[in-house]
Amino acid sequence: MTLTSYVREGWASLRSTRVRTGLTTLGIIIGVLSITLVLALGEGAKRTISSQVTGLDTGIILAKPGGIDQRAAMSAYNPFSITTTSTLTERDMKSVDELKQTNAVAPLMFINGSVGFNSKSISAPIIATTPDFVSLLKLKLASGQFVSDTTNRDTVVLGNNAALDLLGNDQVRGQEVLIKGRPHTVIGVLKNTHAPVNAIGVNLDRSVFISLDDGKTFNQGIAQIGQMIIRASDPTSTTETAAAIDKRLLETHQNERDFSIIEGKDAASAASSFYSIIVLITAAVAAVALIVGGIGIMNIMLVSVTERTREIGVRKALGASNSHILGQFLVESLTMTVVGGLIGLIAAYIIAFFIAMVFSFQPALTWEIIAIAMGLAVGVGVIFGLYPAIKASEKDPIEALRRYE
Amino acid sequence: MPRKKKTTGNVIELSGVTKEYGYDDTLLMALNGIDLTIERGEFVAIMGPSGCGKTTLLNILGLLDSASDGSYVLNTQEVASLSSRRRADIRSKEIGFIFQSFNLLPRMTIIDNVALPLTYSNMPRYKQHKNASRLLKTFDLQEREYYMPTQLSGGQLQRVAIARALVNKPSIILADEPTGNLDSKASEIIMNELSDIHRRGNTIIMVTHNPDLTTYATRIIHMLDGRIARDTKYPTPILDTRQKRPLGKTKKKSKRGSA
User: Fold this and answer.
1) Do residues A227 and A284 share a domain?
2) Domain presence at residue A72
3) What is the ipTM of this complex?
4) What is the chain A residue with the closest CA to B168?
């Protein structure tokens, strides 16, 4: 018996019980739909992150305090934690800057405090840094300029959302805001980066930026460097540069590895692997829907086997072997899951399309996701179809023929 | 391994076949030492009261059931101890079944029903349909090929079932009360079809309650309590020596369920 004849007969028998087949298939449709959507949304989020971190991967190196595993770097060091003191100092920054393999270094000093305007106050991340910060992260200014060596000490640049939250619009140069109670003049506003999650670990759109010298005044003149962004002179030898930085810092830290050097591309992978875990957990929850659908299939196939006991007897009398009967019933449950899977995929595609239209967020329906969803659907068909099919194939033809006679 | 079907000789050789159900004090000997040889081209009618083991014997002959003891040689091949897969294979090649309740699959068209035994023998679909169509034509049912079973009368359904039993060119045709669900007129048509098939050289083994039907047979086996009580052979079917009754004027026969 060929596969096509199995499918033809399976299709005919499923068509004869349309409503029940439809409802059973609906379970699979919903399961495949939810898994596909969750994976597509997760993949979309991952792509958004890595596209925002891509700006880092051409010759950018991050130095973070704390000798920690690179893969854990995203979550292990919280720049605003009050319990950790940074092991990176201004001296480290200078020694890295002196290396001929590097051509720009920007420190990030994270300061806890509130930013106020009139009676309003927000608790935005305050980042003290140097002019290279803008070019290193390829940030753009919506108006004004960034803090530089030539600007006054009590000046501040606002992230786009911070400006909107605090002052209501992003054309606010010359306004005075209070940083930790001290008045600062706004000299520029950054363009929106649309990157709430990035390699730095801080939402730049919600941050305010002051000069490192200014930042030090909030900390008794000592720079607490939470992170250094470094650019290699030769982007093609980023790894060698990272090694050179590592060596130099080890020397200055008396061989104490209390810092970590991360290449830009690894910073991205840290972010996306973090997201992968969340996506996987959500997908596992969505898979429950598919399992429920599979139970529905098993249920309906068991009913079908009982109803068609006589048919099984006739087929066996006419020469069907056990494996013929097994194949016939397995193909029926597989037909339901494959068709359900395809419909689920189409539905997921349509919903993803509307999400992309409405939310300006792009779910990514990749071939891998389609393969995973279809693979799961087929797997459910086999796993939950096997038991009823075995039951059907083991029917005694004499008993089966005697029924209802 | 296509086996050439011999034109003469024994198709079936049973020796010492027993069939037991249950055990200890519930032990039932459905068949109690059956020795039976059936030659090619015989039309055997098996008669006997309910519970005498007719249907059990037919099931064993049709390889649906296996004997508890004894040997069964079908077409020179010992089949008593074959795997279920091989038995299914032999069923699909050597045996045609005709049931009392027709047992056509209600979802399938007439032609698909007739072709059903061929789907288990890896024949291409167009060939299956060609064979089925040819057979339906000999039963004057070619216009009904794409009807569903519910659209046909009982007599027509049983002719379809006979066509299905013949489609794989079997060595033996097993019929269990083939007219049990039919009125006398349809019964006569069916029996005429069967004796026609028999005249063309097929071996038919039929279980029946109805003594009238035995007139078509060349051999009548009476069974009692799992044994063969009487075995009578006729050189030609009794019917041929008798005048045929005109159609439609036959006495109503009782319609009884099978054993």
Assistant:
1) no
2) no
3) 0.86
4) A318
Question: 3-state class of B63 per DSSP?
Answer: coil
CB contact under 8 A, B91 and A316: yes
Domain B39-67+83-241 fold is Rossmann fold (3.40.50)
Give the number of A-B residue pairs with CB atoms closer than 8 Å: 68
pLDDT string in tens for chain B (259-residue length): 444 444 568 889 999 999 988 888 888 888 999 999 999 989 999 999 888 888 899 999 999 888 889 999 998 888 877 888 899 999 998 899 999 888 999 888 999 999 999 988 888 889 999 999 999 998 888 899 999 999 999 889 999 999 999 998 898 999 998 988 888 888 888 898 898 888 888 899 999 888 888 888 899 999 998 999 999 888 776 665 554 554 444 444 444 444 3
What amino acid occupies position A391? Answer: K
Closest Cα partner for A152 from A126, A186, A178?
A: A186
A97 and A223 belong to one structural domain: yes
Could you say which of A188, A223, A257 is where a domain stops?
A: A257
**Domain range spanning residue A367?**
3-51+272-402
Q: Is there a contact between B116 and A401 if contact means CB atoms under 8 Å apart? A: no
Do residues A10 and A106 share a domain? no
Please choose, from the candidates B158, B137, B140, the residue with its C-alpha nearest in 3D space to the C-alpha of residue B149. B158
Measured in angstroms, the CA of B145 and the nearest CA of chain A are apart by: 17
Final residue of a structural domain among A257, A292, A312: A257
A194 and A276 both lie in a single domain = no
Interface test with A, best of B31, B65, B92, B122 (most A CBs within 10 A): B92
Q: What is the pTM of this model?
A: 0.70
Dihedral sign from CA coordinates of A90, A96, A100, A101: negative
Counted domains in chain A? 2
CA distance B53 to A364: 69
Cα–Cα distance measured from residue A216 to residue A86, given in angstroms and rounded to the nearest whole number: 14
